[in-house]
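Please, structure for the following, as tokens.
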Amino acid sequence: MINLIIDIGNTRTKVALFNNGELILSFPTFDFTETDINVLKEEHREIEAAIVSTTKKYPGELIDLLKKNFEFVLFLDHETPLPIENCYETPETLGKDRLAAAIGANKLFPKQNVLVIDAGTAVTYDLVNDQDQYLGGFITPGLTMRFKALNQFTSQLPLLEPGTPKTFFNKNTTDAIIGGVQLGLEGELIRMIDHFSVNKSELKLILTGGDVNYFGKLLKNHNFVCPEITQLGLNTILEFNYTRSYNRQSKC
């Protein structure tokens, strides 16, 4: 059985295929269209089920296309049944990417304490405990957002990009900003990991997100890098609900 994963973000859509739980294809696109569906169906005729997660309103045309082309289609929302317990107090406000990444982490390390750090536009820290419970976490500004904030909320500081922090005492503005932003975020990461480690013993650490390569090098002895953890979580949610649906039908 092959599953289609469609993760619609603010600027682009990530598409993936899983075959019996194994990732076999993953690619980004700006618009997922009927042409894409037809190509995938032609190349992978075994696709039976699909899941859609989006930060926007579900596109009506896409809903109709998926229902027309696939046997089982799931549109993720805060009421979707999950394979782990969601202890978040306001599930309707929880980002689907955070939840999916946490479920993906639990899939990789069931019955273990796992911290997922997603270093993207924002940096999110999300914990799943050894009781298979999602406990929430923290949200802070990401690397690029911090550079932009210094530029947009001041009158003279330039907009810079990540670089290599230089000396302990930075004697020009460019080096001062690069060092302050990047070493500051590095310090935050270490402090957050210590915070979760104190409260949860034998903590597994998973890194993902657009800046994963940068921070993965900093924490290379303490982490498991998994860029596709969100897609894995979405596939896990899809399989869980597909099985529940099949079991209900079998009892009828």
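The chain has a mean pLDDT of 90. The longest strand covers residues 133-141.
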